[in-house]
Amino acid sequence: MSEKSSKLRSSHWFGGRDRDGFIHRSWMKNQGFPHDLFDGRPVIGICNTFSELTPCNAHFRQIAERVKRGVYEAGGFPLEFPVMSLGETNLRPTAMLFRNLASMDVEESIRGNPIDGVVLLCGCDKTTPSLVMGAASCDLPALVVSGGPMLSGNFHGVEIGSGTAVWQMSEDVRAGKMKLADFLEAESCMSRSAGHCMTMGTASTMASMVEALGLGLPYNAAIPAVDSRRYVLAQQAGRRVVEMVHEDLKLSKILTREAFENAIRVNAAIGGSSNAVLHLLAMAGRVGVNLELQDFDTLAHDLPLLVDLMPSGKFLMEDFYYAGGVPAVLRELGNLIHRDALTVNGKTIGENTREAPCWNREVIREFSQPIRERAGIAVLRGNLAPSGAVIKPSAATPRLLQHRGRAVVFENIEDFKARIDRAELAVDENSVMVLKGCGPKGYPGMPEVGNMPLPPKLLKRGITDVVRISDARMSGTAYGTVVLHVAPESAAGGPLALVEEGDEVELDVAARKLELCISDDELGRRRAAWSAPPPRANGGYQQLYIEHVLQADHGADLDFLLGCRGAGIPRESH
Ligand code: FES
To answer: Is residue 572 assigned to a domain?
Structure first.
């Protein structure tokens, strides 16, 4: 071994000339690797979330091959490994339940293997935070390559966006405005290429967060999955991660408080998903950065919406890439961004974006001519959400941002589904729909059901939005005046559990207020009479999750996963 290679983790596996070294090399050679690959060069893990059950990541084998090409070119030794893949559309009860489990898989797979640096292949919503969280708890040099968004959907000559079109069209079917046959035809028109949701949903948001955090190469977020430049980026990432190992450029040098502040501001400017709140809090918790729910409001509530993408606007990720992508947004934010924050390519975010062009001012606006003023996530508090709740004002109906109405209460999602279509449901346009039992512990896993579909009797009258409140999440592709992530959740005894049918609820986003309009005495009486519902698990991971999951205001990570445990060399296995 050279002096340099003796510093690499992988040398503790592949560098020995004893029995253990023989074992580690010999079995690897059954794959046809020549002996010189074990000469002390950096071993790069390619953490792959490929799965045919995760359609957004189904093209990742091809991307991994391009990363490998780059690693070899730079003198590294690439080794691809699978980790648990979380597909948003198929996995039940909700992919979010397994984000933390997947992060454990990632963390232990990296630490337990001869890996010096890692490329994280991320796509569908939860695959980005789970891989970053797991890698952050190891703190090796790491770089994210996102899979890229699908091409824009097109139905009967009209562009349609992932998710967003589903919510719109299914409401049209329920309102009798769209034929079922057309609705079913739209399935293949919406998802017509490899890639993840091409609206500014959670996947595109998290890919943009990766870029804003400095974890991905410039333009990582927006290049379409099938664009040849996506494969160029993957190859360049492979080259670069080898250099990062030589430079010892660890995740903790990039994931600083400043990087998270940049991400929060970019999330506001792009009209990003409310799910970013949970994921950024959880990522920060793994690297020991002190980030709080309130930071999202304090740092970005007054930032304008600059990017006109669905669900807040009208364009799609393909348009965003052609217009200049995240680098153009970062440039537009000027000194609101910490421009000296370091990124994976060894340059600062300011250096990366100083000359970033914008090619379409309809898609990416100038800072002085935004689509909407003050578009950042608002953090609400009050006797209904003592630990906070969030709303995405850019996706809400402006006149409902200050509203007082009577609660229509659903005790859980089954209760909601059983009653929402009934003609006798006592609901009108001034009602506040309240859904319980959908928080981290209660569901369990905090599903994306907070954007409750409206009752048909309102839809038929042309009413498209009412205030909705829950301890659930909302798909990043959804929209509406939807208050989410109420903490503490109802299953943990939060005041949401105590709301009764007909109670008045007051939402005042400007005042950051969410109040249940009953007396403290009445609230106390209800609390004394309340008992926790039985946990919805009988052993296994779900039991572990319910017992250890933190509330939404702490990112819903498991309490014992907080922090960085490093990448020390584990004891030998034989
Ligand atoms: Fe995978 Fe939307 S379902 S990104």
So the answer is: no
